[in-house]
Amino acid sequence: MSPFDSATQLIEQLKAGELSAIELLDEYLERIERIDSDTNAVCWMDAQAARTQAASITAPPDETRPLLGIPMTVKEAYDLPGSPTTWGVDAFTENIAASDSLAVERLKAAGAIVFGKTNVSVMLGDIQSYNDIYGTTNNPWNLERTPGGTSGGSGAVLAAGLSTQEMGSDIGGSIRTPATIVAYSDINRPGR
Description:
Blueprint: H1 7-15, H2 21-39, E1 42-45, H3 47-55, E2 71-75, H4 102-109, E3 113-118, E4 130-131, E5 135-136, H5 152-159, E6 165-167, H6 176-187
Parallel strand pairs: 2-3, 2-6
Antiparallel strand pairs: 1-3, 4-5
């Protein structure tokens, strides 16, 4: 498996027994540890809970749980129990989610292992992803550049191969702008 395999490819590998959910998750956790210090795309994660969940999966994905065993991240703006949902605002640092956002709830119901959250701009209102809580997210292919915003952490995590999937959001280009780095990375992927 490659960290840049599509979710469809990874699901087929899980179904074929070529890898387990814990092996798949550990690949991404190792990459985050090795690469994300420069990119700063993942602003929060619970590796231990995710590993416990992944280790408990014994069945392959199926029609009722098509994402079973697929590890993924979500934009910091989505609620995920136990995690801060700050929108990059200092005054919200103590806002710890007690329940899932609807989108996260549906991902989990489909079997996804939501193990982390990705950086955003302040109040989800800028063309880059910087805030005083988590700092600056950099474009993984050129650390001197931005990955865009407000889903810049989302774009950077995918472009760097730090997650299989990512849940972003878009009102005024928040996904469309960062998506350009993912498209660019498919053409010019460095050997990391």
